């Protein structure tokens, strides 16, 4: 006797249990029934919810890609000091810098801007040495 059952206890018939209820009024195993209605019937809410979720994700992706596209073409200007050359204005961004105006600000009480100078356009990765009058 090598099986799980002794020979005298082997079942003669096997009863098949249906996976789905025979009537729609009978709940299947695991369904929650409250007041005679099946609580797991969410089909009217699933399609609109999935639709709204996919629309929201696509809207967020659109605005993120739009901002990335604009910011990837902007100039980024930095002031760098080199001992031999003095102050240098560098464009480290990916876009051209146009209409650049460099001014100095007084340290005195009035703190006004003076010596405004227009600088030629700087292409990406270009630099312009700044020389101010004494």
What does it look like?
The chain has one helix at 43-71; strands at 33-34, 37-38, 77-82, 86-91, 100-105, 113-119, 127-129. It is α+β, with helices and mostly antiparallel strands. It has two domains: 22-71; 77-129, no CATH class. A hairpin with a 2-residue loop joins strand 1 (33-34) and strand 2. The model has no long low-confidence stretch (mean pLDDT 77).
**Biggest sheet layout:** 3 strands, antiparallel
Give the quaternary arrangement of the chains: single chain
What does the radius of gyration come to? 38 Å
Unreliable segments (pLDDT under 50, ≥5 consecutive)? none
Q: Total number of β-strand segments?
A: 7
Tell me the domain tally. Answer: 2
């Amino acid at each position: 006797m090598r099986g799980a059952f002794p020979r005298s206890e082997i079942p003669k018939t096997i009863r098949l249990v249906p996976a789905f209820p025979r009537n729609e009024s009978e709940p299947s195993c695991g369904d929650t029934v409250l007041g005679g209605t099946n609580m797991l019937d969410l089909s009217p809410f699933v399609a609109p919810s999935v639709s709204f979720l996919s629309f929201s994700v696509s809207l967020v992706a659109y605005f993120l890609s739009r901002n990335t596209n604009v910011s990837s073409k902007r100039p980024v200007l930095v002031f760098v000091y080199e001992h031999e050359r003095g102050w240098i204005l560098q464009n480290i961004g990916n876009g051209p810098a146009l209409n650049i105006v460099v001014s100095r600000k007084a340290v005195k009480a009035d703190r006004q801007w003076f010596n405004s100078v227009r600088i030629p356009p700087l292409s990406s990765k270009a630099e312009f040495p700044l020389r101010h009058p004494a």
